[in-house]
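Field reference: sequence -> structure
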Amino acid sequence: MRDCLSGISLQPVVDGLDWSECGVLRELGEYRRQGAYTDVAFLCGDDMERVDAHRAALECRSPFLSGLIRSAFCESCCNVAEEDSVIKVMVPDVGKTALEKLLELLYTGK
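Structure field:
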């Protein structure tokens, strides 16, 4: 399986982020790990493994992911659908591990 994030700079994802005030995001990160209060579900890889996140965190921390969520397609491989008040973002070319690492960076700055 090809990983969409390999070879792509994450700089546009994290540009301009102020990591000095991440307390709320760290708390949301803990909720994300528990699967609590999430409203975005990324479906990753060939097996469409689910990785949950919070739309508010993604919207405020990453213009790239905000655009992905808001668009119908991302480079013709990432479809977006909204069902049951959970936005499902299908990213078959992104591995679950890579996405988990990206989300950890966005939530914690580490």
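Note: Confidence is low (pLDDT under 50) at residues 1-6, 72-77.
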